[in-house]
Predict the 3D structure of the following.
Amino acid sequence: MNKPWFAAIALICSLCACKKAAFDTALPVKQTQQASPVTVILGQNLPGYTIPHIFEGLSYETALLTESPDYLNENNAVLIQLIKNLGKGVLRIGGNSSDEIEWGGDDAGTDSLKRKLTKADIDRLAAFAKAIKWPVLFGLNLADNNAVKAAAEADYVHTALQNNLYALQFGNEPDVFFMKPRPHNYKYADYQREWDTYYAAVKSTVPGVRFAGPDIDPFNTRWLAEFAKNEAQKVILLDAHYYNYGPASDPSLNINNVLRPNKNMEVFLQGMNKIATAHNLPFRISEANSIWGQGKPGLSNTFASALWALDFMWRIAQNNGQGVNFHGGGIRFVYTPINIDNGLITARPVYYAMLAFKYGAIGGKIIPVQIINRDESDNYNVYACVKPDKSTSLTLINKEIKKDFSFTVQLSNTTSSIKIVRLSAPSVTALNNITFAGSTINADGTFEPAITEQYRTDQKNIVVTVPAGSAAVVVIK
């Protein structure tokens, strides 16, 4: 492992010039440049939305069950450990291949290029879900429009997974079925008829199973609204996908497409929240990542994607989203949070963002953050929540490439101690040597935080410097 990169660290707690905080630990300070000042006011006594314990999730193609039987497998100790590091979550099985692979039951088929999904595949998934203790959001094949076969598959999935089955859903991004496999004039009304047929068949076969939907393409709130209006009483969750940009083949995409905010994202999330709230349902981003089309090398697998993912999770939470499943799998998925290459399983940048979010957000109640006189050209974000232990957790994300920020944080309550852990890498384009809390993931999948900056104080103001292209999680007690 190369030497971790540490940049400027400053924490000053004061009420007046004559009174200084006493530090538990004196750490070396490496000042890279003059940090730009930012003033932040936290509303510690105004808790809002709660971030669920199952907020984080992973999304995998159904084809992974048939093509890589050793991956989502109870004997894959490294992958299981990596998932356990994240705490509770939701495992989603679906993607494009869920509408390409048919249910075979006991028959795997003879075509090696189009293997059927079998009971043995589902048994392995069930054993894996039991090992990681994550419920499964499972997608059935809607493309073949065979409700009888879907009901048989649902029956076996339900029997195998039992309480680890979170919900079933029909079809992957059905709002783009007009491209294939349906006629070009395929519309929502056609989808609703198919969905209702599937629902009736599955419900009569497996009365106790739960449903989610519509698992649509990004930004299509019109379909989401229609689905909620017609099917809200039949589902426990509304879900949709999100990709920041794409396709991956677009030569114009660059690092700024990962780091800079996509204004459409906030509009989409607000729209989902409005629809879900109107029908008293939760919503989740069931498939997401930085660039659609399996990700772009040099962008989706860099540290920039970790900063994007951390910011994205907070944006979802601020809009009352109940979670996100980052899509991935093997080496062909450039953006995958957890990679497998020639049998070697490793954590990618997005995974480190998930660690940071777990540490700084999971289980907390979001509190308001006010930024004074913000320069709108600056690319940073500040988020905060009150954790169940009454501590305040502050996440500072600096997505600038060359600009450090010095955040002066004004608290509602007097603090007695502060801990800081950092998400960092040699640069935003780094593929490796990414650390959280000064540590990388061990070869066996375990994670042991190495560096936590700790201070004692009795003041209501703190100052934290966050270097360019990095993030910090500050726990205030």
Summary: Residues 255 and 299 are 6 Å apart (CA to CA). The longest helix spans residues 188-205. The two ends are 33 Å apart (CA to CA).
